[in-house]
Each structure stands twice: as structure tokens, then as C-alpha cells.
Amino acid sequence: MKFSKAIPKLIGAMYIFIFLKNILQLLFGYVFSENTDIKFYKIYAISKTPYGLDFILLLVLTYECLLFALVYFCVFSILYFITVKYGNALWIHIVYFMSIYSVIVLATHTEFDIYFSLIMIISGILNWWLFKKWIKVP
Using one digit for the tens of pLDDT, what is the confidence trace for 45-65? Predict the structure, then answer.
């Protein structure tokens, strides 16, 4: 599939990724975390934060879906070109998102979180499936 025809499906996959990542961040944060620092690369305990759920959802909608949309689109475009060149292998998606997470951890000098790594692995599996079914990358 040509890139121009894949753009709407790529954007759909991108927003599904964002939605799943944030749902898993809230779920894992509720179950496993004591952290109340809300960042897009951390899990956070929604039950212990002074902010309400409505504020957190507005924050996610504003930052992740609107302000970071161009960054996410670039990330997904690069992933598209990698999968077109090398094939739609599951390991490519997982390694790609784990690499991005590792770069973010190193750049922000935060601790590596095993639960967020699990979120990236689950997201990689989802993206592999979406690329296979929607975008039709062989």
C-alpha cells in the first residue's frame, strides 16, 4: 500500500495506540504504582493523585491527542517505512517501541519502569496486528 493511501489508517492506528497506552497507564498505575507524577512516559496512581479523573482525561486529550499528535505521526510514519522495507515482524514493533521508551528514559534521567515496558510490549503487539489487518503490510 502506498504511503498516501495508508495515512488515514496510520492515523487510526496511532490514536488506538494512544488510547490503549493511556488506559494501560491508568490501570497499571491504579494497581501497581505509588507515583502521582503525571507524565506521558510513566504510570501514575490515579487513586492517590490530587487531580480528578476528569482533569487527567482532559490532560491526556490535550497533550497526547492534540499537541503530541505530530510527534506520534512521525513515529508511526517511520515505523511504517521500516515495516515496508523489512516486513511486518512482531519483533520489529516491540523493539521499536521499547527503543523509543529507552531513549525517553535516558533523555529524562528517570528510572526504567518494568510496567511501562510491559505497556510498550502490549502496544507493540497491538500495532503489529493493526499493521497486518488494516494497513496490509506483509
Answer: 666 667 777 777 787 778 888
- Assess contact for 67 and 49: CB atoms under 8 A: no
pTM of the predicted model as reported, rounded to 2 decimal places? 0.82
Rg (CA), the chain: 15
